[in-house]
Amino acid sequence: MIKAVVFDVDDTLYDQKAPFVAALAPIVQLPSSFDLTPTFQAYRRQSAQAYAQVATGNWSTTEMAVRRLNAALHVQDLPPVTPEAALAFQEAYCAGLKEIKLFPGLATALEQLKERYQLGIITNGHTEHQLAKVMRLKMHQWIDRDAILTSEEAGIAKPNPEIFTAMNRRLNLRASESVYVGDCYSMDVRAAKQAGWQAFWFNHRNFEMPDGDWIPDQTVENPAELQDLLLALTTLTHQPS
């Protein structure tokens, strides 16, 4: 029986690609029809590793901005940018992340879910940075601080399934009593399933499943479908455990 619904943050609760593209557009000057999804995904994948390089003193923050962006651009054979341009992108992207809003329908679903389930968040990234996003999204209305676990706090990052086990301890629940909602198959779905959780894949970027080893319990492809799925949980009849 599900007792907790736990969410990823980036590109699950809000559209992370929109501020990324808006910040990058004036720098790379591509046609509006050009799909930057592969570059965006490559930039996201580098997050934990990039910040670790800064934390260990291997890179300065400027070097991280340049290396991370140029590595992402290389995925689509786009030309590298100068350090000045990389820093301008970083500043614009950070500014855009201060204007983020929940995907449509999520607030309604969260309001109803809170009446029946423990709600939580597992997210990779610096605690201060991720909590700032959580506050901008006003998630504190539905989720208590002690039910928010960052990779910096845990000392473990997705896709390591141990971060999900750490959340089980925090919520005092068994793995079989928890479901995770995330947008990334490898970081969210596969990792949660390896930890014994159920996993709902919010596949709004329409990616193909990389392999068939771990099948999502549910897959939805847009915010309306996600809202319907979450609201369906509120209609389940709970049986005594």
From TrEMBL:
An annotated Gene Ontology molecular function: hydrolase activity
UniProt superkingdom: Bacteria
Keyword Magnesium belongs to the record: yes
Biological processes per GO annotation: small molecule metabolic process
Cofactor(s), names only, from the UniProt record: Mg(2+)
Keyword Magnesium tagged: yes
UniProt organism field: Candidatus Levilactobacillus faecigallinarum
Keyword terms, alphabetized: Hydrolase, Magnesium
Name this polypeptide is given: HAD family hydrolase
PANTHER family assigned: 5-AMINO-6-(5-PHOSPHO-D-RIBITYLAMINO)URACIL PHOSPHATASE YIGB (PTHR46470:SF4), N-ACYLNEURAMINATE-9-PHOSPHATASE (PTHR46470)
UniProt cross-references to Pfam families, sorted A to Z: Hydrolase
InterPro entries in the cross-refs: HAD-like_hydrolase, HAD-like_sf, HAD-SF_hydro_IA, HAD-SF_hydro_IIIA, HAD_sf
